[in-house]
Amino acid sequence: MKVTRYKKASKRINFYINNFGYHPPIQVLIDGTFCFAAIKNKLLIEEQLKNYIQMDLRVLTTPCMIMETDKLGHKFLQVSKKLKSLQLNRCGHEKNPLTGSECIKSLVKDNRYIIATQDRDLQEWIRKQIGIALLYLHNVVPTLEEPSLATRNFIDRKSKKSLNVSSFEGEQLVQLKKKEGIVEVKKVTKVKHKKKKGGPNPLSCKKKQSKDSQITGIKNKTIDKNKNKKRKIKIPKHVKEEIKKA
Predict the structure, then answer these.
(1) pLDDT tens profile 17-55
(2) Are 146 and 12 in contact (CB under 8 A)?
(3) How many whole angstroms separate alpha carbon 171 and alpha carbon 121?
(4) DSSP label at 75?
(5) Can you spell out the DSSP letters for 181-223?
(6) Most CB atoms within 10 A, among 144, 191, 213, 230?
(7) CA–CA separation, 57 and 49 (whole Å)
(8) Distance CA 238, CA 233 (A)
(9) Across the chain, what does the average pLDDT equal?
(10) How far is CA 15 from the centre of its chain?
């Protein structure tokens, strides 16, 4: 399990190195929530993170983080002491200190940090940004989250743009190929379509009738003719004369 965890962490940190200019020593910016969770679970922050990321790194915090934990009182005294023992990253808010999350948001715009936080709202904000690495404790184990959907979509669009050749560049390439004789201009020839021959006469495709059906057909015709004929009745002459006299 440990080997696969280290491989995933290495793959993810290399993604940020190749695409967003992260470089050793990797800077891990820790806030009070992450420090509190680490102390609660007896985690040695610097040692554990170095073993997990397996690169030269610097664990940092800011004056805003320290001042925020100092205000929380005696319960967070150990957290404040631990933050003060880390390397201090000047944030420029000393005169007007911000909350830990607001301080981080202002710093990540121009710098390349891995943000270590347990603050759920801050985590969601980081996931919507592009090119910011997020680290947190999951089951008391440091976990570098895979690049967010916003980050992956940005890289996909960027790679597609680099592969696409503009129309001007395309014309230039065609002209250069013509000069060098690499591409021959193909003549467009019209393809003549052969006319399809007409099918057979449907009347000629009638099924042959059997002998029995032919005989019955002839009988039916003769009966019909006999029906149509009017029967002439001959009247004798003496009957005709009697009719006339009457």
Answers:
(1) 999 999 999 999 999 999 999 999 999 999 999 999 999
(2) yes
(3) 50
(4) G
(5) T-SPPPPP-PPPPPPPPP---GGGGPPPPPHHHHHHHHHHHHH
(6) 144
(7) 8
(8) 15
(9) 82
(10) 19
Cβ neighbours of residue 23 closer than 8 Å, sequence gap 6 or more: 17, 112
pLDDT at residue 20, as a whole number: 93
Q: How is residue 87 written in tokens?
A: 């390397």
pLDDT at 81 over 90: yes
pLDDT at 228 over 60: no
Q: Which of 35, 32, 14, 10 is nearest to 23 (CA)?
A: 14
For 110-162, write each residue's pLDDT tens digit. 789 999 999 999 999 999 999 999 999 998 999 999 999 999 999 999 888 76
In angstroms, the CA 23 to CA 225 distance is 109
User: Contact 84/109 with Cβ under 8 angstroms?
Assistant: no
Q: Strand, helix or coil at 86?
A: coil
Cα 146 versus chain centre, distance: 16
Phi, psi of 130, rounded to the nearest 5 degrees? -110, 125
